[in-house]
Amino acid sequence: VQLQASGGGLVQAGGSLRLSCTTSGLTFSRYGMGWFRQTPGKEREFVSAISRDNEIIYATSVKGRFTISRDNAKSTVYLQMSNLKPEDTAVYYCAASDYVNTYFLRTHANYNYWGQGTLVTVSS
Fold first, then answer.
1. What pLDDT does 61 receive?
2. Burial letters for 10-44: b for 16+ Cβ neighbours within 10 Å, e otherwise?
3. CA–CA gap between residue 124 and residue 111 (Å, rounded)
4. What is the pLDDT of residue 40?
5. Tens digit of each residue's pLDDT (9 = 90 or more) over 65-105
6. Which of 29, 88, 98 has the alpha carbon at shortest distance from 79?
7. CA atoms within 13 A on the CB side of 38
8. What pLDDT score does 110 carry?
9. Between β-strands 66-71 and 17-24, what pairing exists: parallel, antiparallel or unpaired?
10. How far apart are CA 58 and CA 35, in angstroms?
11. Which member of 10, 52, 58, 75 has the lowest number of beta carbons within 10 Å of its beta carbon?
12. How far apart are CA 1 and CA 116, in angstroms?
C-alpha cells in the first residue's frame, strides 16, 4: 500500500493550494481518507476527513476555508485550501482508515496507512 501526497509549497497569506493524495495497493472506495498536519514539537493534528460514504468532517480551525473531496476512479483524495493563514504552515499527511463512521476519523490512531507528507508554508 502506498499513499503519495503532493501539492505543497510556499504561498502568501490569503492564497490557495490544492493537495492531492494518490493511493495504490488498496481498494480505495472502501476506505475513509483523512488529512492531518504536524509542526515540529507538536502532535499530529486532524484537519479533515471524508468517509467511504462521502460524509465529511473538518477541524474547526479550517472549516469554511478547506474543502476535502475524493475521486474513487482515480484513487485520490484532495484538500483544497483557501484563505491560507501563517498558522496553517505544517507538513500535511494523508491517511487511509477502514473505519466507516466519521467519529473515528478524527483520531490519527484509527488510520491504517499514511503518506509521506507534503510541506505547506504560508508566509505573512
1. 97
2. ebeeeeebebbbbbeebebeebbbbbbbeeeeeeb
3. 33
4. 93
5. 999 999 999 999 999 999 999 999 999 999 999 999 999 99
6. 88
7. 12
8. 97
9. unpaired
10. 10
11. 10
12. 12
DSSP assignment, residue 112? S
The one-letter code for the residue type at 73 is A
For residue 36 the three cell numbers come to: 492531518
Determine which helix (DSSP H) or strand (DSSP E) holds 59, and give its type and residue range.
none
26-55 pLDDT tens trace: 999 999 999 999 999 999 999 999 999 999
Q: What is the model's pLDDT at position 64? A: 98
Supply the pLDDT for residue 44: 96
Instruction: Give dist(CA 28, CA 99) in Å, integer.
Output: 13
Element at 50 (helix H, strand E): strand 45-50
**Residue 42 corresponds to which amino acid?**
K
Q: DSSP class of residue 57?
A: E
- The Cα–Cα gap between 26 and 11 comes to 32
- All three cell numbers of 78, joined, read 484532495
Q: Tell me which amino acid residue 21 is.
A: C
Task: Give the SS3 label for residue 108.
Answer: helix
The C-alpha cell at 44 is 499530529
Within its chain, how far is the Cα of 122 from the centroid?
17
Rounded to whole angstroms, the Cα distance separating 108 from 102 reads 12
